[in-house]
Each structure stands twice: as structure tokens, then as C-alpha cells.
């Protein structure tokens, strides 16, 4: 128990340094930001060394590396933490977010699938999975995932957008239009759905003629 409090204490001080770094970066003081992030990183590393199975320390270390501009280091840290942590769910979510931010959807897909095995009805996971699957050419899987999102969250416009965009990209314009139109019925006035519907109509018109 004392060991746990010691590592939690290190994390708390590291988070304070992280906040100092973020504030300095916002003020344009890059030297102070770098110093603060370095202090926080060192503390998070000490926490990880003391207990490599604690997800909060790995998450903190990955996040402070990310904030300091070391994107690849942050991603690799999250990967390492995922393999060591007793409770990896939130760390996996962090890794997914970082990979998607870096447009590395092919690497994110296995982690998204693992997360969906545990939380199959999570709208955020379903949306991210649909986008990532589409980006890697797995159109059928992307369509099924978007359809699942519509079922579990029928008032979430992302499901209709994801479905319509995926279908439109492979030339299934009539089905894409139906997806955008269905979304507008559930979420009237949604700007992105309206814009995509109008764009799809403009493409369908010449085809019909």
C-alpha cells in the first residue's frame, strides 16, 4: 500500500509539472515548457520503474511526451504500457487516439477491434473504427461498423456520415444518399449531413441523366 502511495505521489507531482509546461507553452515560453515537461517526464519514468504494471504512470508518461512534441516516443510508450499494465483499457484508448491523430489508422485497427470486443456498443469506438477501416480499404467492415453505430446511437450523426461517406467513396451513391437523408430525419438541420446530401445529389444527377 505504501508503494502504491509513493508511485501515486510521483504521478501527482509529474502532473503538476505537466500543467506548468502546458501553461508555459500557451504563453509562448518554449524554454520553460521544455524544462517543465522534462521534469514531469523524469517523475513519470521513476513511477513506471517502481511499478511497471500501473496504467496511470504509463498514460502520464505517454501524454507528457506527446505534449512535448515527441509523437513517436509517446506512441511507443503507450504500446509498451499496454503490454505491461494491469488495467489497459484507458491506455488502449489513448494509443488509438494518438495513432488516429497521426493518420496511422492501419495500426489503430487491431486496437480498435480489441476495444470493441470489450465495449461493442461504444459510439466513439464504433465511429473511429469505421473511419480507420475505411481508410485501410476494408469497406465491407467499415459499412457494418457504421451500421452498428446507427443501431446503438440512432441520434448520433456520425453513424450516418460514416456510412454515407464510405458508400460514396466506392460509388454506391444511391445508398450514400439514403444514409445522409436518414441522418437528417433523425438530426434535422445537421450541417455536415446536409452538405453531403447536396453533394451526393449533384453527383447522382448527371448519372441519372
Short descriptors:
209 residues, mainly alpha, 82% helix, 0% strand, disordered N terminus
Detail the topology: elements first, then pairings:
Elements: H1 2-26, H2 30-50, H3 55-67, H4 71-84, H5 89-101, H6 105-118, H7 123-135, H8 139-152, H9 157-169, H10 173-186, H11 191-208
Helix pairs in contact: 1-2, 1-3, 2-3, 3-4, 4-5, 5-6, 6-7, 7-8, 7-9, 8-9, 9-10, 9-11, 10-11
Quick description:
This protein has helices at 2-26, 30-50, 55-67, 71-84, 89-101, 105-118, 123-135, 139-152, 157-169, 173-186, 191-208. It has 209 residues and is mainly alpha-helical.
Oligomerization state: single chain
Helix content: over 70%
Kindly provide the radius of gyration, computed on alpha-carbon positions and rounded to a whole number of angstroms.
21 Å
Largest sheet: none
Stretches where pLDDT is under 50 for at least 5 consecutive residues are 1-5
Query: What is the strand content?
Result: under 5%
Order of helices and strands: HHHHHHHHHHH
Number of strands: 0
Given helix and strand content, the structural type is mainly alpha
The shape is elongated
Mean pLDDT: 93
Distance between the termini: 74 Å
Number of helices: 11
What can you see in these coordinates?
The protein is mainly α. The protein is 82% helix and 0% strand. The protein is built from eleven helices and no strands. Helix 1 packs parallel to helix 3 (55-67), helix 7 runs antiparallel to helix 8 (139-152) and helix 8 packs antiparallel against helix 9. The longest helix has 25 residues, at 2-26. Residues 1-5 have low confidence and may be disordered.
Amino acid at each position: 500500500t505504501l508503494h502504491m502511495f509513493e508511485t501515486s505521489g510521483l504521478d501527482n507531482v509529474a502532473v503538476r509539472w505537466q500543467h506548468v509546461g502546458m501553461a508555459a507553452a500557451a504563453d509562448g515560453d518554449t524554454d520553460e515548457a521544455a524544462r517543465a515537461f522534462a521534469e514531469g517526464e523524469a517523475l513519470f519514468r521513476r513511477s513506471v520503474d517502481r511499478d511497471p504494471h500501473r496504467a496511470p504512470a504509463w498514460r502520464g508518461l505517454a501524454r507528457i511526451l506527446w505534449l512535448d512534441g515527441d509523437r513517436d516516443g509517446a506512441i511507443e510508450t503507450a504500446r509498451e504500457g499496454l503490454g505491461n499494465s494491469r488495467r489497459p483499457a484507458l491506455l488502449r484508448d489513448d494509443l488509438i487516439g494518438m495513432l488516429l491523430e497521426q493518420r496511422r489508422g492501419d495500426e489503430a485497427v487491431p486496437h480498435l477491434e480489441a476495444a470493441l470486443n470489450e465495449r461493442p456498443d461504444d459510439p466513439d469506438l464504433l465511429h473511429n473504427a469505421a473511419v480507420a477501416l475505411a481508410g485501410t480499404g476494408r469497406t465491407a467492415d467499415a459499412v457494418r461498423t457504421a451500421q452498428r453505430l446507427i443501431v446503438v446511437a440512432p441520434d448520433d450523426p456520425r453513424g450516418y456520415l460514416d456510412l454515407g461517406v464510405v458508400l460514396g467513396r466506392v460509388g454506391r451513391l444511391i445508398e450514400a444518399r439514403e444514409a445522409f437523408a436518414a441522418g437528417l430525419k433523425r438530426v434535422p438541420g445537421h450541417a455536415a449531413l446536409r452538405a453531403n446530401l447536396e453533394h451526393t445529389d449533384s453527383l447522382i444527377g448527371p448519372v441519372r441523366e
